[in-house]
Design goal:
By secondary structure, the protein is α/β, with parallel strands linked by helices. The chain folds into 2 domains: 8-322, Divalent-metal-dependent TIM barrel enzymes (TIM Barrel, Alpha-Beta Barrel); 325-384. 46% of the residues lie in helices and 9% in strands. The chain is built from 15 helices and 10 strands. The protein has helices spanning 16-19, 37-47, 56-59, 66-83, 110-130, 152-173, 197-204, 219-223, 229-238, 266-279, 297-323, 325-334, 350-358, 363-367, 373-384, and strands at residues 12-15, 51-55, 89-91, 134-138, 143-144, 178-182, 191-192, 213-215, 246-247, 285-287. The strands form 2 sheets. Strands 8-6-4-3-2-1-10-9 form an 8-stranded parallel β-sheet. It has a two-stranded antiparallel ribbon with strand order 5-7. The protein is globular. It starts with 11 loop residues before the first strand and ends with a helix.
C-alpha cells in the first residue's frame, strides 16, 4: 500500500490563520477555542507539515508593545526550532482593522496609505527575521462598492507607487526576499482591483523592479469567478512568475469557501497537481483553507492531513497517467506531426509568409478527423477512480 504521509521535501505549509481558524463566520460565533501561535506550530508538526506561514497580526497583536512583540517572536522562534518547521512565506494584514475600510495602498486618505506602508515595512522585517523568502500581498480591501468613490486610475498608480517603495526597501535592507501578488475578484469588497492572475501579471510589468515580483494564485479566488485555475497557473509559470501558490477548493459563484484541497472538484485538483509536478515546480505548496465549522481541533488535524494526503494521492495519479500505455498512445496520436507544416512555424520571414499563403489545405478532410478526447477523458476518470 502506498504511503501518503507527507515528507519535508513535499514542502507542504499552512497559515496560522488556517489551522487557527475558530470557525466564526458572518452568521455564527466561534466554535473552537483560540490557540496560540506556539500551539499551532506544534499542531502542524504533529500532522507532518513542513512550514507555517503568517500575517503579522496572526502572531503579534496590532497594538502590542515592543516588549510584547519581542517576547512573542522569541517564543515562536523557539517553537520553530523545537519542531523543525520553517516560515517560507509571510504577509501583512491590511484588511481587518477598521482603518482599512477603504483599502490600504489605494485608500483615498493619505494617512491610511502611509500607515499601510509603515505596517508593511514592520511586517517585512518580521518576515525576514523568521526566514521568509516570499512575501505575499493580498489587497483584500483594495477596491470599491461604488466607482463614484474612487478613481480606478489613481488606485492603480497608488498601488504601483507602494510596490515600488517596498521593493526599494527590501533592496536597501538586503533581504533575500521576493514579492508575490495574490488576486481575487470580489469579497470582502464589491469589486477588488487586479481581480485575476492575468491582471496581476500585467501590473507587475509596469513596476520598477518586475524581476522581484511574481504571483501567488489561489484556487478559490479564481474558481469563485468560474475561471480555470490551472490555466492561470500555467500562464504564471510561463512568465516565470509562479513564486508561491495557495491550494484549497471552491464551488464557482459562491463566497470564498477555502475548502479542503481536492474536496470539491477532484478533477480540477488532479490537473493542477499534474501540472505542478510535470513542470517541476519547487516552491511551497501552501494550503490556504479551513476546516469545516463543525469540527473540533481533532477535526482540524483531519482537515490538514487530508489536504496533504489528497495532494500526494493526486501526485501518484499523475504519474500513473503519464505512464499509462493507452493514454500515452492516444496523446501521441492526437499530437502526431509529420513535420510537413514545420516550415511555416517559428520566426517570421517574407518567403515563409508567401509560401504559407500558397499552401493548399484539405479543410474538410482535416475537420473530419475525430480527436478521441472523449476516450481520453474517460481514461482520466478511470485513473482518478482507481479503475486503472
Amino acid at each position: 500500500m502506498t504511503n501518503y504521509s507527507p515528507k519535508p521535501e513535499d514542502k507542504f505549509s499552512f497559515g496560522l490563520w488556517t489551522v487557527g481558524s475558530t470557525g466564526r463566520d458572518p452568521f455564527g460565533d466561534v466554535v473552537r477555542e483560540k490557540k496560540s501561535p506556539v500551539e499551532l506550530v506544534h499542531l502542524l508538526a504533529e500532522v507532518g507539515a513542513w512550514g507555517v506561514n503568517l500575517h503579522d497580526n496572526d502572531l503579534i497583536p496590532i497594538d502590542a508593545t515592543a516588549t510584547e512583540r519581542d517576547r512573542i517572536v522569541r517564543e515562536f522562534k523557539a517553537a520553530l526550532a523545537e519542531t523543525g518547521l520553517v516560515v517560507p512565506m509571510a504577509t501583512t494584514n491590511l484588511f481587518f482593522d477598521p482603518i482599512f475600510k477603504d483599502g490600504a495602498f489605494t485608500a483615498n486618505d493619505p494617512k491610511v496609505r502611509a500607515y499601510a506602508l509603515q505596517k508593511t515595512l514592520n511586517s517585512i522585517d518580521l518576515g525576514a527575521e523568521l526566514g521568509a523568502k516570499v512575501y505575499v500581498f493580498w489587497g483584500g480591501r483594495e477596491g470599491t462598492e461604488t466607482d463614484s468613490s474612487k478613481s480606478a486610475l489613481n488606485a492603480i498608480k497608488r498601488n504601483r507607487e507602494a510596490m515600488n517603495f517596498l521593493c526599494e526597501y527590501v533592496l536597501d535592507k538586503k533581504y533575500d526576499m521576493k514579492f508575490a501578488l495574490e488576486a481575487k475578484p470580489n469579497e470582502p469588497r464589491g469589486d477588488i482591483y487586479n481581480a485575476t492572475t492575468g491582471h496581476m501579471l500585467a501590473f507587475i510589468s509596469t513596476l520598477d523592479h518586475p524581476e522581484m515580483v511574481g504571483v501567488n494564485p489561489e484556487v478559490a479566488h479564481e474558481q469563485m469567478a468560474g475561471l480555470n485555475f490551472m490555466h492561470n497557473v500555467a500562464q504564471a509559470w510561463d512568465a516565470g512568475k509562479l513564486f508561491h501558490i495557495d491550494l484549497n477548493d471552491q464551488f464557482p459563484g459562491r463566497f470564498d469557501q477555502d475548502l479542503r484541497f481536492g474536496s470539491r472538484d477532484i478533477k480540477a485538483a488532479f490537473y493542477l497537481v499534474k501540472f505542478l509536478e510535470d513542470v517541476g515546480y519547487e516552491g511551497p505548496r501552501h494550503f490556504d483553507a479551513h476546516a469545516y465549522r463543525t469540527e473540533d481541533y481533532e477535526g482540524v488535524k483531519d482537515f490538514a492531513r487530508g489536504c496533504m494526503r489528497t495532494y500526494l494521492i493526486l501526485k501518484e495519479k499523475a504519474a500513473r497517467f503519464n505512464s499509462d500505455p493507452e493514454i500515452q498512445a492516444l496523446l501521441a496520436e492526437i499530437n502526431a506531426d509529420d513535420k510537413s507544416m514545420s516550415v511555416y512555424f517559428g520566426a517570421y520571414s517574407t518567403n515563409k509568409a508567401a509560401a504559407l499563403k500558397n499552401q493548399v489545405f484539405d479543410r474538410k478532410g482535416t475537420a473530419s478527423r475525430g480527436l478521441k478526447y472523449e476516450r481520453l477523458d474517460q481514461l482520466t476518470i478511470e485513473i482518478l477512480t482507481g479503475i486503472r
